[in-house]
Amino acid sequence: MIRNLTCIVCPKGCQLKVELDDANAKNVLAVEGHTCKRGEKYAHDECTAPMRTLTTTAAVEGGGVVPVKTDRVIPKEMMFECMKAVNTIRVPADAKLGDVVLENVLGTGANIVTTRNVQL
Amino acid sequence: MSNMMKVDLVIVGGGPAGMSAAVAAYDAGLRNILILERDRSLGGILRQCIHNGFGLHRFKEELTGPEYAYRYEVQVREKNIPFKLNTMVLDITPEKVITAMNSEDGLFQIEAGAIILAMGCRERPKGALNICGTRPAGVFTAGTAQKFVNMDGYMPGKKVVILGSGDIGLIMARRMTLEGAEVKAVCELMPYSGGLARNIEQCLNDFGIPLMLSHTVVEIHGKDRVTGVTIAKVDERRKPIAETRQYIECDTLLLSVGLLPENELTKSAKIPLSPITGGATVDQNRQTETEGVFACGNVLHVHDLVDYVSEEAEIAGKAAVAYLEGKALSGRNIKLATDGKVRYTVPQRITAEENVTVYFRVADVYRDVRIVVRDGENVLVNKKKQKVAPGEMESLTLTAEMIAGVTGDTLSFSIEQ
Fold it and tell me: N or C of chain A: less Cβ packing under 10 Å?
């Protein structure tokens, strides 16, 4: 079975052709169309366990929001659950860029970190 | 006016272009620099672009917009490069006198030795689209919605249709979906998307949001608030086909239909603009047709990636310092001409025999083509490309040797089979 993917690793957006085992769609036999190693890894991950970085905002104590992200990729199907977890956070008003505001979100191994200082 | 200041280099705009230009000018030895920024902090539009994907070229890592901006803000602060926030520039004269105002200094004027224009761009508004219907609340540009959601923490609606598949529209489709809205469709007038392929994948396909190519919104419904839109397929002349009209219930319409370089100040300085880019026409130093005035970033031409904005701004920053030091920036005057399939190049002219990276966009999607650069009959570059598209900026480098060997006064850029 052939699966066509658009690589999301960089803005180039390489068109990938992944050959999968007909008996086991999670068994990647060959990848074509990538122009870097990260693209090849993406093709494997995407066909076995797709992962994404989540970026969103979290509420700040006393009002307002601050942008946050997962500091590593999380399983794609957990994005909405992670959104719910992030929505329970109250970020301290003195938080700085990179501060961990929620550790190991839903056991994914990823921390939620701020992506700017709360105070401008 | 009594408040006349003198500054060697004034940079208008404290976004990624302005900050990169300032840091480059500082690193080239200049200290008398002033950045004027109208917002309440440095960073420009990156502050609201909280998604990741920035900085892969520049920093070899994937950053969010605020993180990318912060890398430059830290440098501006550590180097003590002066900047004024909440400061609106009202006018620039051809003699490089800048009139600006803020609530601390009031109205003031600056006599600038050199100016770098880094005002960025703004979104094409609804008024430019001629959509029929009433004028209810609930119609926003994608960037306005992005500001509401990401900076102010408000959701502008629950059921959303997006017109235009530019990157901001795609990014907002995902953002609104994550925040609980239902994005019903992204309609694109053209038969191809204006956004990056990766954004179609991770912002639409990940969430099952349909991308309807060759479709447009023909009518907006609702009295006080949007209640729905009528969309239709368009023919090859981009005229809506009546039989294909369909109603979509929604409370919000987001527009992502193009970005326009914000050049009101450039016009007031009487600096010629390109009708195609909407920005100034520049040489390889990003010097406009007015000596000592440079332009970089989205005010010059709309970029896909901020990494290239930073790169361009550094060129302008360094060149502005060279200009202030009285170094000659010219010697040759070679025009870069395009065949229409190549829509434009930046720079539009080359004035020195040095390596020059030329950025360009194409008019349509072309497959299995060659990009050809000619000096008369002489072919300088003949580069194969599998696919080129209007949404993706291309570049090629002309070496100093190539430019030294140019015998005519024009280099022509074309797309050929």
Answer: N
